[in-house]
């Protein structure tokens, strides 16, 4: 009976240690410290900096659980160690050894159980360390594989092959790009960028550098300003542009967060056909678009500064929030293009440009900017962005450089010769749909136009 009382007294001592105010205070301090570390590492100072032990989501949660559970585990470890000490002392004491066999048996079983629990507690952090080491080894192997794949893809971007052709009576051997290898390399880079966002920006730099160099070399550019036949983009270049167009939402968010802009600056697109691609968010500063045919191309959120376009035809293109600054368009044709939402067209010049079925930006109404429009045609364009109520408003703003064709008005005289009666090389012709908010035109207006 006395042995039982002693064992109960021992358990009471253990409870006193575990639930001692100092012990509980230590646990509370550890938990509070963990919360503070978590909060500080997730506080936003310019950029978010979350504390991550692993890129693997579930393993990261395990590590955080281990941090919060560590103080409790430490208390259990100390408690078990204290109990082992007391039980061992009891077993080795003379009273227990000389007492009843049942009492000794209970103490031995308690010692074995506590020793097993102690081994489990010691093994828990060791198991976490082993998991962490294994994960690092796996990540290292994956990174080595990605690096090898990246290096191989970069090597294949410059792949070429020998090409023999008959010239006269002999054979000339030249070196041409190995398109199949280059396309495979570009697609491999796209896959790497989508699978590992950490490599996305680096891969985009590689692809844009490749495009800047190869498009400029491939372009059949001429120093003379004369019309030449356009040629389609080489297949590998089309694939590379398509890769830029297919960037996903996560990739674009990363670019915005890192303030990264894809750059195709100083690229020569002369005499090329560019179809069905997206340059959205790409920098096209100081590019040359001479004798080009551009159709269904997205220029939204582009930066097009100090660029030049001569004798270029643009169809079904969007310029939403595009920065067209100090860019020169000469002898170009815009058809079904959305220019109305352009962010800025300051200091750009339009010389002998034909606008057909286009939305016109509000900046065209500015008196200072209107001086940059020379011999331009606006046919069936959307002028809803221009804030004016009557035709006289346009005449007041644009002065003698503005001609409004009578075909704009209901019931115009079809016998009028527009080229003879209403065209002047120094004037800007604006045939357009008559706005619905204008008052009906009186018959004498047609006579006024005719007398002009």
From TrEMBL:
Keywords: Membrane, Transmembrane, Transmembrane helix. This is Pentapeptide repeats (8 copies). It comes from the Bacteria. InterPro entries: 5peptide_repeat. SUPFAM superfamilies: Pentapeptide repeat-like. The chain crosses the membrane at residues 20-40, 61-84, 104-129. It holds the Pfam family Pentapeptide.
